[in-house]
Amino acid sequence: MTTPYPWPTVPPTWLLPWLIWRFRGGTAADRPASAPAKIPDWASKSFIQWCAWKRKGEVGPRPPAPAKIPQWAWPILKQLNIAVPLTPPPPPPPPAPPIPATSWNLRMPIMYTSHGWQLDSGWRNDDKLRMAQDCGVGTIALQGGMFLDDTGDRCRDFGFDVAVWGSPDTRDAAEIARADAKGYIPQIEGKYEFDRAVAMLQAGTGAGLSLSCVTTNAGLDTFIQRPDGKGGYEDSTEQVELLMTLGLTHAQVECYWADMSPNNVGVMVSNATHRGFYHITPCLSYLDIHATTYGRQVAVFLGEPMSDAQWQQLKAL
Question: Which of 98, 118, 195, 312 is most exposed by smallest CB count within 10 Å?
Fold first, then answer.
């Protein structure tokens, strides 16, 4: 290749200092005094481009330069590389961790229950089970210690999946067996319940069952970051990462306040996402069963106080 900017037969003494200054990104204040005010075109439009092309491993089109490079150019290029070391390309971003499959496979919607099996005639005489069936409930969640020995069978007779939920306890495995439940939902509303949930899962409680947790996001507060596979990072927490190693990858997020008044579904789900959960189901208050972008993929807390009108709201989802 020929160049419209012929190189000299002998390089000027200012050439190497000027090149070093340029490749270091120098400022006007530290410009080499020996360099002319106007750099000749052969240097500014040809030789420096050839140096950059060689430093990049001859990537891209060859710049305009003599077909036969003068011998004096090679020592200058070598000294330039010593003075301004080549920086290796940045390593590729770390891959994002694989998204685990959801640990919850029972049917939606989920209806939480508590004391009604022992105290409420509507649940004891199956009227509420008929209402739940009519409203298309998929899973009945029984609170540990609050149901009768035949409750699981009665729920299955109406076609429901059965899960056991509650503040994590050493009796959970026995309660799961008593209900012959196919799902386990430890409650996590603070550090104590998180620690207990971890202990139960490590002990094998719920092994082989559908797993979820019902949470206010409290207790999942040690934030870390995991790579997103795009050169950046996304939020997670040490707590959620640990739960996932124990097989629990799904969360039901309580979208209500302590008095059961509704909280913002989008905010609560977003908060759970930033804590690291990949699979999230909003848990609605019985006081505010309303259409969301999740359709019927929701849980409702709590079945006992629900009015006929609230059951119809659930049916309308």
Answer: 98
Domain span(s) for CATH 3.20.20.80 in the chain: 110-316
**pTM of the model as a whole:** 0.74
What pLDDT, in 10s, does the model give residues 175-208?
999 999 999 999 999 999 999 999 999 999 999 9
- Please answer whether residues 66 and 3 qualify as being in contact, where contact means their C-beta atoms are separated by less than 8 angstroms: yes
User: Which residues fall within 8 angstroms of residue 209, CB to CB, at 6 or more apart?
Assistant: 163, 176, 181, 182, 183, 184
Residue 1 has pLDDT above 60, yes or no: no
> Is residue 65 classed exposed, middle or buried when 0-12, 13-18 and 19+ CB atoms within 10 A define those classes?
buried
Of 189, 198, 193, 179, give the one whose Cα is nearest residue 139. 179
Q: Which CATH architecture has domain 110-316?
A: Alpha-Beta Barrel (3.20)
H or E, element range at 123: helix 121-124
